[in-house]
Amino acid sequence: MLDIDDLKEYNDQYGHQYGDEILKTAANFMAKEVGFENICRYEGEEFLALLPAGSLDEIGGMAENLKRALNDFGSQRGTPELTVSIGAAPKGELTFYETLPAADTRLCAAKNGGKNKTSCKFT
Predict the structure, then answer these.
(1) Residue 11 — left, alpha, or beta (φ > 0 → left; ψ -120 to 50 → alpha)?
(2) What's the confidence (pLDDT) of residue 47?
(3) Mean pLDDT per segment of 10 residues, for the chain of length 123 residues?
(4) Euclidean distance between CA atoms 43 and 47, whole angstroms
């Protein structure tokens, strides 16, 4: 799960068209990394990516690549850095409906850890 940190503040300061551009850019960056067929907008400023099986290093690396790409978005437009928080959870033997809350918990941990973080530790 990926959440765009403080999107409301961007909307308030730069307008909703800018916020929409952020959402489209985030979707495009994610699609380039994992494929359009594997992502969806989950709610508000959150996206969900369903990834094929991968190691913790691969998934963590993908999350960091997405974070860096989106961090550059604001600086390319002369606005403050865009930050995102990312949480990941392995499906393993769980159902999708059991995995989703685990990813959301890790996303909350990333946000509570100061935002612009990834939380992909699998235990």
Answers:
(1) alpha
(2) 92
(3) 91 92 88 84 89 72 82 81 86 83 90 85 55
(4) 7
Task: Return the bridge partners of 49, or none.
Answer: 39
pTM value? 0.84
Cα–Cα distance measured from residue 49 to residue 84, given in angstroms and rounded to the nearest whole number: 14
CB atoms within 10 A of CB 57: 9
pLDDT at 53: 64
Q: Which residue range is the domain that position 86 belongs to?
A: 2-119
**CA of 11: how far to CAs of 88, 107, 110, 113, in Å?**
27, 22, 22, 24
d(CA 81, CA 60): 21
What is the CATH number for 78?
Answer: 3.30.70.270
Half-sphere exposure of 64 (CA within 13 A, CB side): 7
Domain count, the chain: 1
